[in-house]
Here is the input.
Amino acid sequence: MGQWDLNRIIDHLEKKPLKYEELCSICDRFFSLKRQKATSHRVYFDNSTGSIVNIQSGKSGDAKLYQQRQIAKILKLRLRGEE
Here is the structure.
């Protein structure tokens, strides 16, 4: 993903299964990394909404769909706050 267009990213999160690394890139861009354990488990904090995002790699290195939807929901809240 070259350009960080929030609407495009939200659409991407809701419609397409992502690799865990892609989801990490999105979270790194929009959230503060609060904690990373020794595994692939990461916890992020969204300063705009006060939400905590907890992500972990699924089997075969894919992102978990429910986590993608959770992140999309938080980004939508952020987008509404910017209007």
Notes: The mean pLDDT is 86. Residues 6-72 form a domain with the Metal Transport, Frataxin; Chain A fold (CATH 3.30.920).
